[in-house]
Specification:
This protein is an alpha+beta fold. Helices cover 32% and strands 26% of the residues. The chain is globular and about 60 Å long. A hairpin with a 2-residue loop joins β16 and β17 (293-300). The mean pLDDT is 94. Strands 12, 15, 20, 22, 25 and 26 form a six-stranded antiparallel β-sheet that branches. Strands 3-2-1-4-5 form a five-stranded parallel β-sheet, with helices on both faces. Among the domains are: 8-109, 3-Layer(aba) Sandwich (Rossmann fold); 133-197, Dna Ligase, domain 1. The protein contains 14 helices and 26 strands. α1 (17-27) runs parallel beside α11 (307-314) and α3 crosses α5 (90-98).
């Protein structure tokens, strides 16, 4: 089957606002599709967008149930939103058992996200630019000496932690002793820990859509993981993000973005060289601009959350065609463009999120009052109850993306939309503001002068 077939049957696995953004982009493609969604929550945006909706757990233990739904639906294309199903081999089963094309890498390739130690070793083996000084540990042997030798360090669990397991000296850990104690705690719980040098600079993400050969770079995005205003408080899955109308970010130089693009392209190439398989899906590069150039913080094997909302809101063209071309290795035959607009995404979360988040409370928003050309509402980890009311689950609730010619206008749109939500919720009002962005610019200028 091809993307031009009269009706394409598409199955999307996901459980978050990123998945809603993917489903919405498919609907905007202007072609006839039958859309099925498999999710562990009855998320309003997914229930309302899907032709067929199935609620079920997305865990390794439920892989057979996930496969059974795919057999029943008979998709021509499958898109996987979150990282967990990639990590336990959903793509392998779909391709092996059903022969269905998938937008998302196999389990072997998904190690670029599921094992930080594997990724660092891969970059070292192939001399990929942007690598950092790092070492993995499965016991305490040599841990103290390595940490003390680096001085300022970052401690990372080797596997998936939903963006909340990484701790940085100076932000979450006061001393080397604190860092070592945290690392030893992770090891005691049966894990591998990665110790890396602490970098100074500004973080950003570059998401690259690829079929393993052709690469399409999305506009870069800056995420805000800290829970509180002015980047204070604990890490979260992401409180919001922004992108600029000129296709870069205010604190980046042209050479910074070009270098990040080259690094992603190199990683895509060496992944196939290492595994013998083409990487098909989205490669998310988490980078830091430093005074010494671009460094790689991490890699993800899928669209980011919230960064997916920024870039998919700007996507112009036929996303059905692009996703199918990725999955079938024909991306060179399609064209992709992104609107020259600025975006600001603000996540609305339950009161107390992330540590003491309320759940079970009703939340509401008048989606009909939003201008879809200027503001997108993407529903996240909420649940439609028996009375068709939306309940908070204790995780991020919904994301609003303002789309405009300038960041100031986009921020105002997102802020107004977030302010319209009823219920026990909060959000970061500073994301996308001129004041916060100028701090990023000033920071990088000071580092480059040093």
């Amino acid at each position: 089957m091809t993307a031009s077939t009269e009706v394409m049957r598409i199955l999307v696995y996901g459980k978050d606002a990123r998945t809603h953004a993917i489903a919405e982009a498919l609907r905007r493609s202007g072609v006839a599709i039958e859309l099925a969604v498999y999710s562990d929550l009855r998320i309003p945006g997914l229930v309302r967008t899907a032709d067929v909706f199935k609620q079920g757990k997305m865990t390794a233990e439920e892989l057979d149930a996930m496969m059974e739904f795919a057999r029943e639906f008979g998709p021509d294309l499958v898109i996987i939103g979150p990282e967990d199903p990639l990590g336990f081999g959903l793509v392998d089963r779909l391709q092996g058992d059903l022969g269905v094309p998938c937008f998302g890498p196999t389990q072997s390739l998904a190690r670029i996200e599921t094992s930080k130690s594997w990724t660092r070793l891969l970059m070292e083996k192939y001399q990929v630019p942007g690598n950092v000084i790092a070492r993995s540990f499965t016991s305490s042997a040599g841990l103290v000496e390595f940490a003390q030798g680096l001085g300022d360090i970052v401690v990372k669990p080797d596997g998936l932690t939903g963006g909340k397991g990484v701790k940085v000296m100076g932000d979450h850990l006061d001393t080397v002793d604190d860092a070592v104690a945290y690392a030893e705690e992770l090891i005691r719980h049966g894990g591998t820990v990665v110790i890396e040098e602490r970098l100074e600079g500004e973080e950003f993400s570059l998401q690259s859509i690829t079929d393993g050969t052709t690469v399409i770079h999305c506009p870069p995005v800056q995420d805000h993981k800290r829970a509180g205003l002015d980047d204070t408080g604990p890490n979260t899955g992401g409180m919001g993000s922004y992108s600029a109308a000129n296709g870069t970010l205010p604190f980046l130089e042209t050479s910074d973005l070009e270098e990040a693009q080259r690094i992603n392209e190199t990683v895509i190439r060496v992944l196939q060289e290492e595994t013998g398989e083409p990487y098909r899906g989205v490669l998310y590069g988490g980078f830091m601009a430093t005074r010494d150039g671009i460094r790689v913080i991490e890699y993800n094997a899928r669209f980011g959350d919230p960064e997916a909302m920024n870039v998919l809101a700007l996507f112009e063209g036929n996303f059905v065609e692009v996703a199918h071309a990725v999955a079938t290795g024909t991306l060179d035959r399609v064209s992709v463009s992104f609107a020259k607009k600025a975006t600001v995404c603000k996540y609305v979360v339950p009161e107390g999120y992330p540590d003491r988040a309320v759940s079970g409370e009703i939340v509401s928003v008048d989606e009909d009052a939003l201008d879809d050309s200027q503001v997108r509402c993407y529903w996240a980890a909420t649940n439609l109850n028996a009375e068709d009311k939306v309940e908070l689950t204790g995780s991020r609730a919904m994301a609003f993306v303002g789309i405009a010619d300038t960041l100031a206008e986009a921020e105002a749109l997102a802020e107004a939309a977030a302010s319209s939500v009823g219920g026990r919720v909060r959000w970061r009002s500073d994301i996308g503001t001129a004041e916060l962005i100028q701090k990023r610019v000033d920071h990088m200028q000071a580092l480059r002068r040093a």
